[in-house]
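Forum > Structural Biology > Help requests

Title: Can anyone predict the 3D structure of Translocation and assembly module TamB C-terminal domain-containing protein?

Hi all, first post here. I have the sequence for Translocation and assembly module TamB C-terminal domain-containing protein but no way to get a structure on my laptop. I'd be grateful if someone could post the structure tokens.
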Amino acid sequence: MSETDLPMDETAPEEEREEEKRRSLPVRVLRWIGTGLFGIVLLLALVIGWLHTGWGRQFIVDQISSYSPASGLSVEVGHIEGSVLWSASFYDVEFRDAEGKLFLEVPEIDLNWRPYKFLFSGLDVRHVVIRDGTLHSSPELIPGDPDAPTLPNFDIRVDRLLIDNLRIDEGLVGEARTIDFRAKADIRDGLVYLDADGDLGGGDRLELLAHAEPDGDRFDLDLDYRAPAGGLLSSLTGIAEDTRLRLKGDGSWQRWDGAFVARQNGDNLAAFKLWNRAGYYKLAGQVWPGSYVEGMTRRALGEAVSLAAGGTLENSILDGAFALRGDGVRADARGSVDLGNNAFDEFGIRLALLDPALFGDDLVLEDARIEATLDGPFQELTVPHKLSVGMLDAGGTIFRQLTQQGTLRRDGETFVLPLDLAVGRIVMGNETIDPRLVDGRARGTLRLTGDQLSSPDLSLAFRGLQARLGLQADLGRGVYAVNGPVRARNFVLDGIGSLDADADIRFRLGNGPWRLQADVDGRMPRVDNGTLTTIAGEDIRFSGKVSLGSQLPVAFENTTIDGSKLHLELDGVMADDRTTLTGEGEHTEYGPFTLEASLEEDGPHAELVMASPLPAAGLRDVRIAVAPAEQGYAIDTEGQSTLGPFAGKLQFLTPDEGPSRIAVEEFRVSRSNLTGDIILAEGGADGTLQLTGGGLDGTIGLAPRDGGQGLDLDLRMRDANFTGTTPLTIRRGRIEASGAFGDGAMDLTADINAAGVGYGQIFLGRLAARGQMSDGEGSFDAAINGRRGSQFAMKLTGTIAPDRITLAADGNYSGRDITMPLRAVLTRTADDGWQLQPTQLGYGNGFALAQGRFGGTEPMQGKLSLSAMPLSLIDAAGAELGLGGTVSGVIDIGQSGDLPVGEARLMIDGLTRSGLVLSSRPINLAMVGKLTPTELQARSVLSENGDTRGRLQARISGMPANGALFDRLSAGNLLGQLRFEGPADALWRLSRLELLDMTGTLQLAADLRGSIADPQVRGSLAGDALRIQSALTGTDVRNVRARGRFSGSRLQLTSFAGEAPNGGRVSGSGFVDLANMGPGQGPQIDLRIAARDAELVDLPGMGATVTGPLRIVSNGMGGTIAGRLRVNEARWRLGGEEAAADLPNIQTREINLPTDIAPPRAVGAPWRFLIDANAPGGIKVDGMGLDSFWSADIRLRGTTDDPRIGGEARIVPRQGFYSFAGVRFDITRGRIDFDESVPIDPRIDLVAETDVNNLSVSVSVQGYATRPEISFNSTPSLPEEELLAQLLFGGSITDLSATEAVQLGAAVASLRGGGGMDPINQLRSAIGLDRLRIVPSDPALDRGTAVALGKNFGRRFYVEIITDGRSYNATEVEFRLTSWISLLASINSLGRGSTSIEYSRDY
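Reply #1:
Sure, ran it for you. Structure tokens for Translocation and assembly module TamB C-terminal domain-containing protein below:
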């Protein structure tokens, strides 16, 4: 490589280039700055130039239109000409207020100004000229920005402001007006110059001159303001009254004196003297605020307010002192206020309250003072302060020694005060509460916005009492509201106990009396009052609403009190002269109740109503009213009991002299009355009570005896009747008792004898008991017999001792012995309860074994074991259920808390029910059940001959914790299932509906919901080949197919259809509703049936085949049978049954009736008939010599007790014959008219004719059926006696025997309507017979007209002989086993004989 090829050194040139760069950097920066400034100037020039273009001017117009200041003012400009930065003209300018209303429009405004000087010398306007504008109205503007400076902090120069030829609209001042106005202003450092004047017209005037120039020693103020009512200035300012302001003075800057006067409608508004001493200003005078202030502000200032102030104003800073004297307040202040920056600087205020009632009559403050210092900007003010009030009376509640100190802060429009308030004592006038309200503290934060004062977090604390409250107040209206929770602990009530309580209070004060409302909730951890514990128990809790206030009563609303024994809900009012309480509740021992009470000037009034205070005595709906009376109290009571309704009037008298006494004016139980006076003497009660009426007659004597209370009772009963829910009757009876008790001992002897004792379906023929007790020990014996013929008798014997009670029984029923191999022994337990030792009761081949315990503090428990115990024992006392079969199993009962619990496992073998003519098919029933405090579960299986026929399972849950067991079960939630498939008669005949019988196979499936009181059932019912029969009507419907469904409590029979014996059809639908069933209330029924040529009546004496609709409707108490039927075919045999007609229901009075005979059962409510039937000619009537066919059109109305028939029946022509004494009559005319407005007594019109013995005989029956007029006529004419002799005996009257003559005489007398001498009965009496009658002939027995002779032998045996005097003879014998079962036997000359049993029963 050669030298010329070596690389060159480049380091030096690079260093030179770096040095050159460092030297050129400042130059480049200056170049950049210059370029930027030039760009800005250029841009500014371009903007200024652009603003002077049409687009620029339009841009300014748009910006002016879109600008919206805080006042709501808006300006619209049509267009601009000239320079907007120097001198411009604005055309078509419109001004609108905050509501968008056009109030001023100006066609042209000239503006000459220097906007670019604002940053250096303030506002500079050379002139503003408004020409030819129109002012339409006064603008409605929003108040300006509160943060804006009170005085401007920049210089202002306006050389000329000219309003030229401004037209005032007629609507503004009532007339069109044109005004001119000029003004000039120059405000800068060292100079204030304002000069304004104009021609406003109409008496309006505004002239102002203000010239203050210290350097020139000039000071001049002159104001002349006149605003007549309705004028321009009045309309613009909104001041409706005539107003005149005048300010004038004389002097220089160093010394100037002046005065200011303001008048309105000729009255002084303000008057001040003014001074200026080289910049130190003073004023002194008065203001009469009048209507400019209202409410609390007006009360504080009064009619005239004295003001005085003095200070300097430099650079917008006011520094000085201020004093105000009003009627209600006194205020003094000193410090500085920066009006340019809206700020205080250590501005101190002292305020004293002169009017204690300034805040209203319900809020009185005495010795109230406040000292405060204002510092900082107006919107961010801080005010350290101290407040003290010697006494505050809030509607009668006194607060003493109130103090508050802290620092008030302002946040915009809101003042915030941290509260630190102390109170020495609060006096409410309550001796229980006031001692606790001492040395209290209140803390929180108060906020004041305008007149609205609030605090969300106030806390109050006293000994045992704390509260956290919220405050809302309207100071302008003087209204205060406080709300929040209050807590009290260990609050002692003398003689009652202590309580802990929480309350949510709402307190209101102002615009009326103060008021306090509170929602209270609390408990009493300690109860010191024994009476309160007895009534309410332990663990007493309470809650409710309470309100009270000044001039308002104390009111309780929805107040509840709960204890271990009591639940009570109360409302009440406590006023000065009257206190009232209303409430309702429930007591564990006395059940639910309601209460109304009042305390009035004459004393306490109270009314207590208890629904069921003592179920064991049947007490319910018991009302006790107490009211003051002369020398004591009047007590009224009424209610229901086991013995029936009761009502009483008593007086408890406490005279000033003499002992207290109880005067029983009347005390009625059912139909019996108790009266008398009882003196409450020192040794006990003394007096006699009389029992009268209702079958009772006796006395109850009370008298002190042997240091105790003596008792003597002598009571006789004769047909005593107590009309309780279950009636109690006693035919004969007497109770005698005598004894004394006191100091825990009792001596008593008693005898009870009664006969004919009925209680509901239970009837005892005779009852005799005797007992005696001495020093707590005694014995008793009793004998009980059932009603006559019931074959029930029982003897009881026992002993009584303080710790032991025994009972033994022996008897029989229906031929079976009732035994007690193990007698009942009750022994007292250590907890003062009773223990039942194993007790065995035997009946027939079965027995029952019982044992358990009850009472005391231990839970109740018991066990009942049954083995083959016959169910027929239930009928021993007259229940007459007719149940058969035996029951075996075990029942365990216990107690959980206050509620019963238990289990049952039972087996019923051969369950049947025997009725009048039917007995149900035996079925077996296996059942298990379990009862807990909240639910009952049960399961059952029905079986027959080893085959399961049905199942039932049910559960009742959610049972309430209070009430009787049945009521709790009724209110629980029911859930169950029933399934059955088997013989219908096994279930049907258990129902005791004996008018109808159902056989065949029935399928039943049902699901149960709801409750026992309101069951809701869902399921279905089906049956095929069923058979429905009625022994009453002979109805026999076969091959019945039925379908139904359960819905709620209703069984809806969607369809059923069957076949009558004659091949006719019966079909229908309907429902059976089981809701609301109970004692005396059956199911609701609505069945619609259609018959088509169906034989529905088939009896030996009658039958009917009908077509048409039937409807059966029942509300559970009686019902209606309605229909419109066509009788296709009917038959009626007369005389076939000897007792076919019912006897009339005649009201009778039995005398000398044996006392041990049970009274007859009362019949149920009657059913109504509403049936129309038409028979065109198919009614066959025969028997008693009649053989005929009739047509009929009748209406069946009335009731089953009083049926009524309307319409008519007519003989079918040539279809009627009558045979009499072997003579056949042709019925030529027959008509029967029925009148439904009266009991059944049809009017008959019947004529029959025949020929006999060469005579043409006609018989006529006319008149009512109960009083028919029968006449015979013949051709040739014969006397009635001769004619009857020919008909009856086939010969002349001269040929009759003596007996035939007697019968003929009776027949003639009967035809004449009186029965004549009634020779038949006279003959019966004469020969000593009990019965003598004529029996019509019967060809089937080859019997002619016969005579029947009957005779009773004793009370049980009757014999009757029947003979026709020729070849027919018969003998009938009747032996009465009981009043309702008889043995019958008969034999006749034809060789026929029979025996039978007759069962008869009245319904």
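Residues 11-51 form the longest helix (41 residues). The longest strand covers residues 1203-1220.
Shout if anything looks off.
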